[in-house]
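Example 139.
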Amino acid sequence: MKRAVRSRRKVYGQLLKHARRQPHRECCGILAGQDGLITQAFPAKNVAADPVRNYEIAPKEIVRLMGELRKRRLEFLGIYHSHPNWLDTNEPSPKDIALACYSEKIYFIVTPRPYATTPIRAFSIRDGRAMELEIQVLP
Ligand SMILES: [Zn+2]
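Predicted structure in complex with zinc ion:
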């Protein structure tokens, strides 16, 4: 059985909107919430040298976002990014796996493709391996 993560429906909408606003490049941000339930997404700037193929959040922005979470009493639960619409999967790329540095966090990968059957997929990435998680969407 897949381990499950819980997310508010609103977050789903936020991520799809963010990814579809710039479907030809990767978007990114962080996921936050309470008691393991993802209640909010915070978009971040993609500062990767090649944002069409990679994503990177500047360390300074991570620090700023962590301060924001503390202020709102939210937990840092994960990271999200999108794969551009010319890629047919929203699975972690070898690079996503190699660069994943939060083994306890959840990674959401979004596709901006309009008719994708699973527009958002969740993964746990640790020890160089990605494991897919089931997403339970709550109202
Ligand atoms: Zn990726």
